[in-house]
Amino acid sequence: QAFALADPAPARFKVAAYDCGAKRSILENLVRAGCAVTVVPWDTPAEDVLAMGPDGVFLSNGPGDPEAVEGTYAQVEKLLGRVPVFGICLGHQMICKAAGSDIEKLKFGHRGGNHPVMNLLTGRVEITAQNHGFGLVFPSLGALVPELSGGRVQHEDDLRCWVEAGVAPVVQNERFGRIRLTHVNLNDGTAEGIAFLDLPAFSVQYHPEASPGPTDAHYLFTAFARLMEGREDYLDIDIAEDRLAGWSFASGKGAA
Q: For residues 89 and 91, what is the distance between their CA atoms, to the nearest angstrom?
């Protein structure tokens, strides 16, 4: 609703957005975060995108099996490490595929607007909107780095073990170095988000644009802007403060 939307920030970043079936509201949220967005087709060569000189690349949501869009994740593999990258839903899976991970068909797909997701970095629970039937197999990204994973060396299928331990584990990926698990679904213990530690990229499986759904995860657009600024703490954001930043319940004479 209008009362919950902050005015768009001045455009500071040039962002190329891969359209795999993007929601308009996602693009609008990128604009509110200070991005001048150019939408490109799902199979645009990475070389063409880099030639645009973007400050960042966004990978959108989209329908179906991620194996069917090899034309996208083959380009993502060329983009990672060259420019900051942020992916949502199918875009998250494209990043994972580019890193060589396995993607599984979930026994029960995630649909609807009330899925609890734990942010392992902040300890906050986000109520999220989701609409997907496939998900990342986190252990397939690589072996655990014990010194960054609470001393553990053995993967577990149910990722809620990391919620209980209060640890955001890190794996060593053969292609792109260290990758951290950042978000976990509290309903079934599946992966909901990752962040690369040796290059500027992160992604989430759920929908932070709140169309439809709650606004707990709005902060991820702010996080993308901070990533493009080069901040290492880009994901360390108070979600309540970020969500309420633009709210205005009254205006004019007598407003509080």
A: 5
- pLDDT for position 34: 94
DSSP states along 129-189: EEEEEEEEEGGGG-EE-GGGTTT-----SSTHHHHHHT---EEEETTTEEEEEEEEETTT-
C-alpha angle with apex 188: 182 to 193, nearest 5 degrees?
20
Q: How far is CA 250 from CA 4, 130, 193, 253, in A?
A: 12, 32, 36, 9
Q: What pLDDT is recorded for position 255? A: 42
Share of the chain above pLDDT 90, in %: 75
DSSP code string of 47-97: HHHHHT--SEEEE---SS-GGGGHHHHHHHHHHTTTS-EEEETHHHHHHHH
Strands 13-19 and 35-41: parallel
Which residues form the catalytic set?
89, 207, 209
Q: What is the pTM of this model?
A: 0.91
pLDDT in tens, 216-228: 898 999 999 999 9
Q: Residue 193: helix, strand or coil by DSSP? A: strand
